[in-house]
Hints:
Structural class: mainly beta
Shape: globular
Number of strands: 5
Mean pLDDT: 93
Strand order of the largest sheet: 1-2-3-5-4
Radius of gyration: 14 Å
Low-confidence stretches: none
Strand content: over 45%
Distance between the termini: 32 Å
Amino acid sequence: MDSSRKQLKGIVLASKMDKTAVVEVSRKISHPVYKKYINKSKKYYAHDSDNKANPGDRVIIVESRPRSKMKKWFLKEIIQKNKVK
């Protein structure tokens, strides 16, 4: 893969769709006035060709060409599997 593509780490929320995983990516931002850190999160639809991801797994997703209206990322690897089934 090209090293210039964006990579994000997140947690799989759902994987009920065929070859698609919903990944939540959280980040901390500083509030401009109060100087307090706030957790912001965003959901990304990622292409999972082998349907390997399960809810609760920690994954890395990488930017790719648009595969559908919502899917513009693909699942690169699973960092940590969810222990609770």
